[in-house]
């Protein structure tokens, strides 16, 4: 009897796996997740920057801490220059003056004299036009030290309406001195000027100048002003 033999079995190769199919819903889901992730990252960065920008207690304390004062700038000096020769005191002085030649017992013939009531306005103050930034010194706590020149007489102006010749006597044989009244006015001006100085017009001018500049500099934010006069 013939023995039937089976043909040898051959091993079959399994088919290669197919790549997964990417469907449209999957694409949409992936894109959505990517957008969400990007939005989350941008939100985190924005919040982080915002938190960094929030002032801390130290920042607030530093912002409100007193700042050191700087030297007086040219704008302030120019503003003071604009005050010019600051006249802070004006006095009205008067004097009675007699001037002329007596002529002795021949006064009736050769004498020439007059009597005048002289009134003048005298102004005094401080010349601020010479100031420079070097005349100022500012401390860290805002105190301004200022060096000023001493006060001086700015003008002496005769009041022509109030000044009158009370009496004029001219000898019978003379025409009188045409310059006598002018000389009397000049003499009276000197007398009134000295009288104003003795009364204290220069000291009053310095006191008033100190008040004016102190108020001006304090209005700019400085804490105090110390003024001295020299020269």
Commentary on this structure:
This protein is α+β, with helices and mostly antiparallel strands. 38% of the residues lie in helices and 28% in strands. The strands form two sheets. Strands 1, 2, 5 and 6 form a four-stranded antiparallel sheet that branches. Strands 3-4-7 form a three-stranded mixed sheet, with helices on one face. A hairpin with a 4-residue loop joins strand 3 and strand 4 (143-149). The longest helix is centred in the N-terminal third of the chain and has 30 residues, at 24-53.
Alpha-beta content class = alpha+beta
Radius of gyration: 50 Å
Order of helices and strands: HHHEHEEEEEHHE
Low-confidence residue ranges: 63-68
For the largest beta-sheet, the strand count, sense and barrel status come to: 4 strands, antiparallel
| Mean pLDDT figure | 77
Number of strands: 7
Question: How big a fraction of the residues is strand?
Answer: 25-35%
The end-to-end distance, rounded to whole angstroms, is 154 Å
Number of helices: 6
What level of helicity do the residues show? 25-40%
Question: What is the approximate shape?
Answer: rod-shaped
């Amino acid at each position: 009897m013939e023995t039937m033999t089976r043909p040898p079995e051959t091993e079959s190769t399994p088919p290669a796996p197919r790549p997964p199919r990417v469907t449209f819903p999957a694409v949409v889901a992936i894109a959505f997740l990517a957008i969400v992730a990007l939005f989350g990252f941008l939100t985190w960065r924005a919040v982080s920057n915002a938190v960094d920008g929030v002032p801390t207690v130290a920042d607030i304390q530093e912002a409100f801490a007193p700042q050191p004062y700087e030297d007086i700038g040219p704008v302030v000096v120019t503003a003071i220059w604009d005050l010019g020769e600051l006249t802070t005191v004006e006095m009205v002085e008067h004097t009675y003056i007699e001037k002329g030649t007596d002529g002795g017992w021949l006064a009736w013939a050769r004498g020439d004299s007059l009597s005048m009531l002289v009134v003048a306005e005298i102004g005094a103050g401080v010349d601020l036009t010479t100031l420079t930034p070097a005349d100022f010194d500012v401390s860290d706590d805002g105190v301004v030290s200022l060096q000023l020149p001493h006060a001086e007489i700015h003008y002496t102006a005769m009041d022509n309406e109030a000044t009158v010749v009370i009496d004029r006597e001219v000898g019978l044989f003379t025409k009188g001195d045409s310059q006598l009244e002018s000389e009397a006015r000049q003499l009276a001006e000197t007398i009134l000027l000295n009288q104003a100085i003795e009364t204290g017009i220069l000291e009053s001018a310095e006191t008033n100048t100190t008040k004016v500049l102190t108020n001006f500099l304090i209005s700019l934010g400085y804490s105090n002003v110390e003024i001295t006069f020299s020269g």
